[in-house]
């Protein structure tokens, strides 16, 4: 009988201990869950405030009363030439419009847009599901992407009402970058190594005009073999030369971002920056409801800003102010 009572007491004490342990663990789990939820909510609030701020700055500077003045500021969307709308990629499946800016993660975002639109089929005949599976050779093929300019080619004068409908109802986004760092990236990509297309179309003329080489080699390979290379100073001289744009428009890789994406005429729902690419991409995919469907390709680790000079700043001032990049004070001498 005594043994039975001892067992009952032991069982009772053990039960109380287990219940006490469960209560403690539950409280800790609840506190941790609350902390994680609170932290996540705080992060989301921060990202929402960031977007609200970026969009507000653009709206304020695009208003007629702002101190920022540039040629295209007050024109209406319908006055933008159709050819100038070729950077607006449309995905009708998900109601998304992406304005791509070269040298601002656009290769990976084009990959994502191809997956979303399902316009491109893999060798097995099925649409691509993983952005990284898409061959690099086709990503920048203009025939792959559905753009606003193609709407005009297809529908003619009826295209503008269609564009307005999509702009009103679709989620519109772009990604931007420190304008001068973007220039450096463009120069290094197109002129610091042999690129036959850019050498023949731009590099050879720059060498003639700004490097005093009257007869440049016929090819980039020959120029590099002879030790003849375009310097960044020559490249900047070309950009600052008023004659350059009189002859032909800037190439898209160094065209000002506002002239590619028209933020004063298009009210973008999301403005991402390369400097905050990871956070902005995760936030945007959640907004679109695609965070479980799309995995954004990794990359773009070198996002360091540098300073350049006053004349170059004047040329790109609109980009700096619209997208809130600090005015540089000195020129980096390469």
UniProtKB/TrEMBL annotation:
Belongs to the sulfotransferase 2 family. The chain crosses the membrane at residues 7-24. Pfam families: Sulfotransfer_2. It comes from the Eukaryota. GO terms for biological process: carbohydrate biosynthetic process; proteoglycan biosynthetic process. This is Carbohydrate sulfotransferase. InterPro entries: Carb_sulfotrans_8-10 (IPR018011), Sulfotransferase (IPR005331). Its main location: Golgi. It is found in: Golgi apparatus membrane. The lineage of its organism: Eukaryota, Metazoa, Chordata, Craniata, Vertebrata. GO terms for molecular function: sulfotransferase activity. Keywords: Carbohydrate metabolism, Glycoprotein, Golgi apparatus, Membrane, Signal-anchor, Transferase, Transmembrane, Transmembrane helix. It is a single-pass type II membrane protein. It comes from Culter alburnus. Its EC number is 2.8.2.-. GO terms for cellular component: Golgi membrane. It is an enzyme of class 2 (transferase).
